[in-house]
Amino acid sequence: MRFPRLFCFFAIVIGSNVTVVADEPVLEFIQGLRQLGYYDTALQYLESVEARPNIPAEVKQVISYERAQILLENAKKLKNLNDQRKQLDASQASFEQFVKANPNHRLAGQANTARGRILLEQARVEIWDGDKPSNEGNRDLFRKNARDMIQRGRGIFKQAVDQHQKAVAAFPSFIPAEEKVTIAARAQAEALYIEAELDLAQCTYWEAQTYDKGNSKRKEVLSAGAEEFEAIHTKYRSMIGGLYARVWQGKCFEEQDEIRIALGIYEEILGHPGKSGTMNNLKDRALRFRLICLNHEKRNDFKLTVLEGEDWLRDAKARSRTDIGLGIQWEMCLAQENLGLDRTTPMPEQANYLNQALNRARTISRYPGELKTPATSMVQRLMVALNREPGDPKDFETANGNADVLFKQVNEINVEINKLLKANKKKEAKTKQETLIATSAEMARLYDIALKMVTPETNPILVNIARLRLAYGLFLQQKYFDAAVVAEHQMTKFGEKYPEVGLEAGFIAMTAFDHAYTHADANDRQFEGDMVANIAEKIAERWPESDRANDARNAVARIHFNADDLLTAAEWYQKIPVGTSNYAQAQVSAGKAYWRQYVIATSKPEAERPSAEDLIKWKNAAILHLETGLAEAEKEIPKDKNLPDDLVGAKLTLVNIRNLDGIYTQQKDGPPGAIELLTAEPHPILKSVEVPKGQPRPTTPGSAQSREIASFAYQQLLRAHIGLKNLEEARKARQSLEDVAGEEDAAALTQVYIEFGRELEQELDRLRAANETERLEQVRAGFEAFLNDLYNREDGQTFYSLLWIAETFTSLADGSRDNPTKSEEYFGKASDAYRKILSSAAADSTFVNDPGQIVGTKLRLASSLRKKPDYSAAEEVILDILKTNPSALDAQFEVASLYQEWGSSGLLGAEDKFFTAVVGSPENAPITIWGWAKMAQFLQRELFTKRDDERLQKLHFDARYRLAETQLEWGKTFSDEKEATEKLRRAQAAVSGFQRISPRWPDEEYARFNQLYRDILSAMGSPQVDLPRDLDGKAPPPVIDPNGGGTTNGNVASTDETSTNSEESGSNVFLMIVMLVFGGGAVAGLYFLAVGGNKKKYAKYETDGKPAPKAPPTDDKLTFPTGPPAGAKKATKKKVTTAGGDAPFILTDEKPQAKPATKKSSAKPSAKPAPKAGQKPKQKAAPAAGEKPKRQYTPEEIKKIKAARAAKAKAAQQKADGVTGDQPRKKPKDK
Amino acid sequence: MRPNHILIAFGLAAILTGSVFAQQIDTVYLKNSEKFGGEITEVTKTDVTVTQKVGNKVEKIPANTIYYIEWKGEPPQLSLARSNERSGNFADAVTGYQEALAALEGSNPRIKDDIDFMLARTGAKIAIADPSQAASAIKNLSDYVASHRDYYRFFDAQLMLAETALKASDTRTADSAFSALQQAPWSDYQLAGKIGSANTLLARDDINAAKSIFDSVAGTSPKTPAEKSRQLEGKLGQAECLQRQNNQDEAAKILDAVVDESTSDDTRILAQAYVKMGDGFAAQGQKNKEAILAYLHVDVIPSLAAHSDLHAEALFRLTKLWSAVGQPTRSADAAAKLESDYPNSPWTKQLGAAS
Predict the structure, then answer these.
(1) Could A486 and B300 be called an inter-chain contact, meaning their C-beta atoms sit closer than 8 Å?
(2) B 29-58 residues with CB below 8 A of A?
(3) CA B198, B201, B202, B205: dihedral to nearest 10 degrees?
(4) Contacts of B353 in chain A (CB under 8 A)
(5) Chain B residues touching residue A528 (CB < 8 angstroms)
(6) How far is CA A346 from CA A301, A488, A832, in A?
């Protein structure tokens, strides 16, 4: 950086030594240097310009102003207080020089404002310095200096106010709307005027700070300040400057002990809508002042202070290190200190509060500013209150000993968290976690100190343990990279000499990276995944025989699995040797990986598809490993027990394969068929998916008894009976399927039938891909005969039976694209079945339960006719739907698809349909058709308010894609090059324009849009280049808080509910480390960190390894997420235990006391139905005896307070005549 | 009274009672963690001779292998001062050494010579993080070298002087000290002299000449751990040259090798390697996480963080990188740590300038 900068500077200076080029953009260049932070270069350049003889007058006039600005900006960046002070003085002098020389210049007002602010800032520093205990003797002198500066500042601000007022008055009272530049200039002048007025009032506030609390003069000045701020607020109540004045008015009241009034004002501000940076700043300030009020002796609402502070931190972690953010945390510290020292607080809670205060105070004390000194003092006080030495230890032994004491506490807290979690008290556990983090921070700090004082005489074993625990402490603070770095260093540099510690360290490193991977953005975690694999490979290479190595192999495999690098994943699973506890699970996982590889490969376009031999090889490998793994695992499960969920998933995958291969029942010497796997002992799948009569099915994803898994099992049963052409058994299976799928939600049944159809379609695709032509014909013929039989039965037909027939014919048609005659015939039959539903419903109103089913059937009919294709008939049906449901999104999608396909059909005059597909119907048409363009806009608007709606997001992507695709197809139909190019350019713009306005696309979307983009370029005859993957400023969204803590209470429950096998087992693999190294207590904390604080899960995949759905949303199918395969865990060999300060290091061959995480234990959590959020008791624990009642706020009370605050704010908002809070006014910088 | 209080009280009593608990013999601690106890009977610039009363065994210990000496009758403050120096509390260390000097009864001038060296060394360490102290540090070390030509700390002082001068861009002093170092009888110190000369050339932007020296050092066949460390320093120099020539890939390979081959005792080499690694990743763009991980080594591994100049640099880089990966809180914390731990570091001064 240095070279180009200097080069640039010297090039200009040398070039300008001779003469000044008249049009040299001097001021722009200075501004550029300032923006880049090249202050010294800017000053040198300014000096060289000033020395030139022919400098233009307008430049010469502002040189001192520019210099002052540079010095001021530079001063703000300087960290050394003395340097900063010098720069501020120089800046002040330069501004003064400018104002004296140019009192009427347009920049004079701004120069005065800057001068005044420098003085005010200097006065504030004087006040803080004077408040330091060390300056007690000179306090009056400091304050007098401050008052003098404020007085000078006041005079300058008065000038500035006059100057800005004149500037505003210079604008005409009416400016036509089209003169946008003038309007913006006036707005800017007004903002400067308001700022100057605020600055003036600020002088009064700060003058009050130069008097002791309780002093009558202070009260008098504060009272005057309140009036000044009120006057500003009254004038500008609808502007952000007015709101700032309001906050400071509250502050003046607070300092006059008018707490109630101040709180009212802050509540009013906090209730304002708006989340812009300016509004956040304003509200943060209001919250800080509010917390000061709550901590005030008149209120002593310490618990509420902590609660509101924690709420704020969860939402605003990224702002936690601003001055105001630190101020909010400082108030939390004060509140926690008070609670911790309050004798009425229960003993264990006292320590919790003090530990949390200590951790925060330490952080605050690192930051320069007004809070540094008090925070440092608080640290000393808290150390004494916690019975610790106030100063840092001076030798390894002391530091290590103190850290060991905390380590013991950390483990105790973990045990408590474990208990709370077992008792389903997640909220309390979450609170406890704050203490865990605070204590582990102090523990890590002490181990860090200890390690810095190692001498040659220090016991190396203690040093190794300290390093391991330092990594652990960092891990508990959710500093995963930091933990990994320390642990990996231990493994690589000390592993040879201390292999046991090295192995555990390696495991911590892997765990840490694994958590980093889990918490990283799904689109940006390749690095973390690579690091897990890297460490795991080292462990497996260095300690190949250890159980850790197997866990490591599992971890590597899982990472590859999640990245869809399935063959590598399978290879890693196969490295887990026979006879180990992980073997069965690894075999199952290898089978799943091969199957998924087969499924993904078969779904690829023919040109990209691997050879049929490879496909069959992978399918056979899947069968082999699934059979081996299941047989091995089932050996360990008593016959009367059900299979665990993950094995049910694996067995269902095998059933799926059996159905694909036509092995419906066991043949002589053959393997068990689909029917046996589903129904025969031991461990039939259908038994595992059963629930006792009357008991609701669990909603936990991946649970064998969930409706999704049970329904999939019955679909497979139905599929097998159809294959056997056993009509009666198939009917029974279909009935069971209806009972399972429709028992709680009738609408879901429709979806199940659609899903069944898609399964069939995929089965046909797979057979075709693997060149299994004979089997393909067999399946097709079998289904056709079966469906014809069913359809021709006149009696007993219901809405669902007909729907099933129609859907299955549709899927058969979709799966028979290789045979257009057959496909058309099947679509025709599907249409007949849909029509039959409609006619039956018309004849008998009880035929359907819900009128929506008729609309849905019509939509499916239209789709079927479109695909047949019978465009006119499809048009008739879809327009009929739109007549009564013009805003039905699915119908609009269908009609746009219809016209797009019609346009592409090559039929005479069909290209006109493209117009409707793109732009929809004319404005006054009797039936509204949106077309892709309006649809995309509509969805974009919807997403403004429903950002997290995944279905809308998918629809939006689809609409945008189809819009560009239609324009491409349309463009290709023109023989006129100009017209074709115009359409193709529009197609191109549709893709690139969409990319510019969207956040970073997921990989899958990028891939399909990129391909489309290349196709468009190809059609244009341009070179095919890729779309940029990351546009400027479109980098992956920042992970503001990857370390958890950002979840709301409500989210905690929901996160837990959605935790899958994968997450728990994935984490549990790594949590073993703590069992072995730190004892069982630590597991709870890690578990909770992994589950409770987690926001992003591993990508889920389906039981049968199907690829992610790519079909349009109307064809959305059910998925059966069970999570990635995970290994069973068991530790039986040597362990390293670190029992705490008293018995720091034990090498033993004994089994660990903590229960090892076996297959069972890892599967256990997921088998339990997750508690429902609504079932959680909302009542907080009763107040401890003797606690002051007024300090107790129940959640209901807090809710009421918040509601009252919101209502009050709303009222104030209405009164304020449309204050938006987001007005484009400049905020006063130092307010 | 709790155990910690007892310990402290005990420590205080030891200090107050002066020589009651002072060393009864001289103990020479070596860099390889071995130690020799006895009476130091001779000290030259190349050796320290220890004579053990039992068996009248005489051990001549080469000066380049000595970590430090615990002197018989040394003031008790000395031990605490050494500990403070080790843990980076340089101001406390200086105070401790000065108190030890004051408490010295003058019976053993060798102790005074040693304390003088430790004072000069601590001054140099302070100067590494605070360049405004460089001039006085260089003067103290120059004075020490001039007045202790036959003391076992002579070559260490030369090395310290050379490195401090180089840091302060005083290449003339650095050149002269590095040349003196090449006169040492031990190959590791000779190599250190060569490396220093190469670094001086690098400071003058003579990359090719510097690289040729680094290549020769990197190509040596080390026989002792000390020589191995010098060889690794040579490789570090190679990597630096390659980075300056914008050959990041080659540099990265060498740095990986340096990290692999370093022992845990090569803390400065490791810290330098990680900083250079981070620089390489950062220069390549799109590798922010890799760069963060590299710099974090120098922040969170205590033995590497003890190198204040490199730690400050790593913190500065982390400040920028945490922001770049969307973690403003970590960025602010790194900046605060830099400001509070190294207020006078040039990196702290740069904090706002290039943002």
Answers:
(1) yes
(2) 29, 33, 35
(3) -160
(4) 37-39, 74, 77
(5) 289
(6) 17, 41, 74
B336 CB near a chain A CB, below 8 Å? yes
Residue A148: strand, helix, or coil = helix
Structure-block tokens of residue B234: 């040579």
Q: What does the mean pLDDT of chain B come to?
A: 88
- Across the interface, do A1041 and B35 touch by the CB < 8 Å criterion? no
Residue B296 with chain A: CB contacts under 8 Å: 481-482, 485
Do residue A481 and residue B293 have CB atoms under 8 angstroms apart? yes
Report helix angle B77-86 to B109-129, nearest 10: 30
Asked whether A312 and A280 are in contact (CB, 8 A), the reply is no
B244 touches A: beta carbon within 8 Å: no
Q: How far is A387 from chain B (nearest CA, A)?
A: 9
pTM of this structure: 0.66
- Top-confidence range, A44-53, A977-986, A1022-1031, A1130-1139: A977-986
Q: Report the candidate in A1158, A1124, A1152, A1128 with the shortest Cα–Cα distance to residue A1138.
A: A1152
Q: Mapping DSSP to helix (H, G, I), strand (E, B) and coil, where does residue A724 land?
A: coil
Q: B331: number of CA atoms within 13 Å, CB side?
A: 22
Q: Which of A966, A906, A957 is nearest to A931 (CA)?
A: A966
Whole-angstrom distance, CA of residue A135 vs CA of residue A157: 30
CB-CB neighbors (< 8 A) of A448 in chain B: 300, 302
Dihedral sign from CA coordinates of A141, A143, A144, A146: positive
Q: Which residue of A has its CA nearest to B304?
A: A452
Tokens of A793: 């039965």
Quick one: which H or E segment has residue A505? helix A499-519
Which of helix, strand or coil describes residue A905? Answer: coil
Which of A76, A455, A493 is the closest to B264 by Cβ? A493
Under an 8 A CB cutoff, do A486 and B325 touch? no
Mean per-residue pLDDT, A458-480: 95
A79 touches B348 (CB < 8 A): yes
pLDDT in tens, A550-580: 988 988 898 888 888 999 999 999 999 998 8
Q: Do A1039 and B325 touch (CB under 8 A)?
A: yes
Residue of B nearest to A75 (CA): B352
B293 vs A485: CB contact, 8 Å cut-off?
A: yes
Alpha helices, H only, chain B:
3-16, 77-86, 90-103, 109-129, 134-147, 154-167, 171-181, 187-203, 207-218, 225-244, 248-261, 267-284, 288-300, 302-305, 308-324, 328-341, 346-350
- Enter the ipTM: 0.84
Q: How many CA atoms lie within 13 A of A1168 on its CB side?
A: 14
Tokens in use for B176? 């002269």
User: B352 touching A, CB under 8 A?
Assistant: yes
Cross-chain Cβ contact A78/B349 below 8 Å: yes
Q: What are phi and psi of A277, to 5 degrees?
A: -55, -40
Residue B57's SS3 state is strand
Regarding beta strands B26-30 and B35-43, do their DSSP bridges make them parallel or antiparallel, or are they unpaired? Answer: antiparallel
Chain B residues with CB inside 8 Å of A482's CB? 296, 299-300
Tokens of B143: 């004075």
Nearest to A252 by CA among A284, A313, A208: A208
- Confidence tier at A301 by pLDDT (50, 70, 90): very high
